[in-house]
Amino acid sequence: AEFEYAVPVADARALLAICDGPVVEKVRSLCPYEGMTWEVDEFLGANAGLVLAEIELDAEDQPFVRPPWLGAEVTGDARFVNANLAVRPFTSW
């Protein structure tokens, strides 16, 4: 399961201070296109150069219009999961 909610900056800093291991850094932008909002993540640090986009669908077969800037489909490719990017970063491929 994945949960998304606002975390106070002080709490985030405290959590990062006790993290053990590599951290995946990224900047997320919201890009509306044809009635859908795409989340575009630009990765930093050891994953610099990687940009991923995703949308949340109500159903697996829900139709949507692919933006012209969208690249290859990587859903299901375990290399792109954040936990894997932490231990085997994009720049090491």
Automatic annotation (TrEMBL):
This is Adenylate cyclase. InterPro entries: CYTH-like_dom_sf, NeuTTM/CthTTM-like. Coiled coil: none annotated. It comes from the Bacteria. Gene3D superfamilies: Hypothetical Protein Pfu-838710-001.
